[in-house]
Design goal:
- The chain has 210 residues and is of the alpha/beta class.
- The protein is built from six helices and seven strands; from the N terminus they run H-H-E-H-E-H-E-E-E-E-H-E-H.
- The chain has helices spanning 10-17, 26-44, 61-75, 95-103, 154-159, 186-206, and strands at 49-55, 81-87, 107-112, 118-122, 130-132, 147-151, 166-171.
- It has a four-stranded parallel beta sheet. The protein has a three-stranded antiparallel beta sheet with strand order 3-4-5, covered by helices on one side.
- A hairpin with a 5-residue loop joins strand 3 and strand 4 (118-122).
- It is globular and about 45 Å long.
- The protein starts with 9 loop residues before the first helix and ends with a helix.
């Protein structure tokens, strides 16, 4: 991975240095290529890049994708990339997903409590925090036009035949770590999924030419 000018927190930097994008299989590279192409066109045209990662409940994979994509954009010094997440319905950011990010070195602070807590998620001291909470993909917090909709689960991909305002619809689906909730493997499997998402999104941004 190329060095970052942004002072990413050291524990996150250690995770990044452990990635092996060269091990991404060809089928996944093919799946990721439309996202690379979308970002490249925007960067080449000096336009803002808005990425909305969408899953059914906006509780696990879509948040992990949003956080790692924003971190990757900063790591590779793309200042005009803005990442979001949403669901076909709102639930809550799942506590194990929050813990997984914290264990990777993100500084996570609860800003509110209740059924749908709001979190500040920071990867560096000098950038705006990522605001994490569950919401629908068309929530006013998210962009309403000129964005790419990235579907991170098959259910959302099938359940969202049309996403208003999206310039591009891209399916990049991941297995749900929810399958391991309340098992001895839970923490391991959440970290494993987070690392897959992170590795693939860092690969995406490593392919973008300025």
């Amino acid at each position: 991975m190329a060095p970052s000018k942004t002072q990413i927190f050291p524990d996150i930097e250690k995770e990044i240095l452990s990635f092996h994008p060269e091990n991404i299989i060809q089928d996944r590279r093919t799946t990721l290529q439309p996202l690379i192409d979308y970002i490249q066109i925007k960067i080449s045209n000096q336009e803002e890049v808005r990425l909305n990662f969408i899953c059914t409940h906006n509780s696990r994979r879509s948040h992990l994708s949003q956080v790692w994509a924003q971190t990757a954009a900063s790591y590779f010094n793309f200042s005009n990339v803005f990442c979001y997440s949403g669901g076909t319905e709102a639930t809550a950011l799942f506590p194990m997903a929050v813990k997984t990010l914290a264990n990777s070195g993100f500084k996570v602070t609860a800003l509110s409590e209740g059924n749908n807590p709001i979190y500040s998620i920071k990867y560096t001291d000098n950038e705006h925090p990522i605001i994490g909470f569950s919401k629908t993909y068309d929530n006013p917090f998210n962009p309403q036009a000129e964005f790419a909709a990235i579907l991170t689960c098959n259910q959302a991909d099938g359940g969202c035949p049309f996403i208003a305002g999206a310039e591009k619809r891209i399916a990049i689906t991941f297995e749900d770590p929810k399958a391991f909730d309340n098992t001895p493997q839970q923490a391991e499997k959440y970290h494993e999924r987070s690392m897959q998402i992170a590795t693939e999104l860092f690969y995406v941004f490593s392919q973008i030419k300025k």
